[in-house]
Write the structure tokens for this entry.
Amino acid sequence: MTSKSKINILLLRGLIRESRHSKFCMEDFQKMFPHAHIYGLDIPGTGNLHLSSSFLSVRKNVLYLRDRFIKLVGTDQGQNNYLIGISLGGMMSIEWMQKFPEDFKKAILINTSMSGVSPLYHRMFPSSFFQLLFSPVMPKERWRQSIIYKLTSSLGNDRKKEVIDHWEMIAKTAPVSTANSLRQLWAGASFWPNKSRPAVPLQIFSSVQDHLVSHQCSERIAKLWDVPIQRHPTAGHDLLLDDPKWCAQNAAAFFLN
């Protein structure tokens, strides 16, 4: 396959994230995949669906997203579809590939985890969990977004203002309620998939400096399924934010060959 082939790339975000959180990686992906349609779909409780109740299971999110995705690309496009899922989006990607492997040609999982493979305290560090849990009570939205930035990024102050300005705008225009945040947390924590390797060829991207989820979670999935893993030495949990060029280049090397 060449980069001129018509392909669809579906990008699934993580906990309390929506498609607009992909702003800072889109330029690099569009450069590497100039002829691709890159889709970002929001789960209920986020984005333009922020007034809806989030599902309590990964399975229900997948069924909802699959219905929307098929309406966009059709039912016979599996060999043109590629999947990238980060964090909770990675869990949804695993469920999707196990239940409907015909929907995608290849997939990439980024900083995700599975119950039964990694302990709960690796799937989210306890200190990070409590910071996220109590962040909604922060009196200012910017303080909350600053906490999330600290937990998910290793960029430091380099782009902090630009990123938090954008995240604050998202939070004000499509706020994720505390109830929906907890529902999404439960969906991720209770995700207990079949341990069998999906039929879809896949790779794993892992951030060694992830301060939200232990990078050992990615290592364990890679070992369990005997799949390649690409390790980023300095990026935080939101690898798509911290080094979008690295992600796009490695994704192209895998998807287009």
User: Anything to note?
Assistant: The chain has one domain: 8-255.
